[in-house]
Amino acid sequence: METNTLDKNTPAVISSQQIKEIIEKQRAFFNTGGTKSIKFRKQKIKALKKEIKANEQAIFDALHKDFGKSNYESYITEIGLVYEEINTTLTHLSDWAEPRQVATPLTQFKGASYIHRVPYGVSLVIGPWNYPFHLAILPAIGAIIGGNTCIVKPSELTENTANILAKIITSVFDEKHVAVVQGGVETATALLAERFDHIFFTGSEYVGKIVARAAAENLTPTTLELGGKSPCIVDKDADLKVAAKRIVWGKFVNAGQTCVAPDYLLVHEQVKDKLVSQMKAVINTFYGEDPKTSGDYPRIISRKNFDRLSLFLDQGEKIIGGESNAAELYIAPTVLDNISWDDKVMQEEIFGPILPVLTFTDLEEMIHKINGRPRPLSLYYFSRNKKKQRRIVEAINFGGGCINDTLVHLGNPNLPFGGVGDSGMGAYHGKASFDTFTQQKSIMKKATWIDVPLRYPPYKGKLGMVKKIMK
């Protein structure tokens, strides 16, 4: 996932001393136990939802200023997902937080065993620029429902959204509970120099390694939501009309600046030409003959990212799109043909509206090829064949994905979302968020009316009995 959270050209707007003071306030508040009441947690996220609703238009305006995003796209990819998360949490939080009894072995007679979910303490959430509202506030909700305090560091590249995010959070939360800290590399570095009890980072693999190294200094538990080259596979028996619509939508929503977007297309050579033709028609239907004039097609976040993406436009053959305009940070929905696995566009996550197309004929060879590359955050497979669907899911290691669709697994709060290996560690959404921001505390309660002497010395003559029990 591309991010410039640590862009060295961005000045800090808060001092290291101020950061220390916020952390001290939050640690003191956490130690009072004030965050641990389930009633308090629910009240706060209800208030958060109410404040977001009151500021919907301001969020729309901010995202349009930062990206040129339409209100509809902003709602379904940013605001609506937050509402879904809050609703799910309010329904289930009490059950999630209830101590869970587990079986106790006979050797511990008479005892009862429980797992308590307890908060870590002071947490840090570092958000990315590509979905600057949703991907900053969803982890923060996880921290809150887990009973933690939280500092949120939004991306400095989406200044308008960061400002409205700060306004909303400040209206709902005292700084000693949840605070927003804005700034660039100096701010991020100052935050990472402090001791937190949990760090949640969404961004690129490169910056993720910086975060992980900083966290290691204090042995801080860390969740890393990264990215990678997520394949989209279309087999010869797929419904091409449906596949074309769902691939085009999944790839070009947010102008391709989505960590789970299809990064490259692997299509069976027998149906490649027909699929590409269908996709071209779909792009025209979605965005018109000139997507630059469409109110539904966003822009690239910065000139730096525009220039990086422009280099990919010179690779292979542009069979759809390819137009660009630096002044407007516009790159058309683009499909590249005649691409090899060794081309530069296949060496890093694209994170933009450019889709390379490769072909395959043998499913097993294709699986072997994907497994020889870093593990992707997502994978999408289009096929009507249930046996092949099962083979893809079981044979390839990836974070999550869809059969016969793209992106939509992200919108189900009942599905944990996260990567594996190069694409991240840990997961969140729904109960997975609660689990991520809480520790499992194991407790065994023992009766005192009986005290089995088998475990105590002297041990002579007791081994046979132990072997009968622990066998």
Automatic annotation (TrEMBL):
Top-level division of the source organism's lineage: Bacteria
Coiled-coil ranges (or none):
none
Question: InterPro entries from the xrefs?
Answer: Ald_DH/histidinol_DH (IPR016161), Ald_DH_C (IPR016163), Ald_DH_CS_CYS (IPR016160), Ald_DH_CS_GLU (IPR029510), Ald_DH_N (IPR016162), Aldehyde_DH_dom (IPR015590), Aldehyde_DH_NAD(P) (IPR012394)
One Pfam entry name: Aldedh
Domain called Aldehyde dehydrogenase: residue spans: 14-443
Q: Which family does it belong to?
A: Belongs to the aldehyde dehydrogenase family.
Q: What is this protein called?
A: Aldehyde dehydrogenase
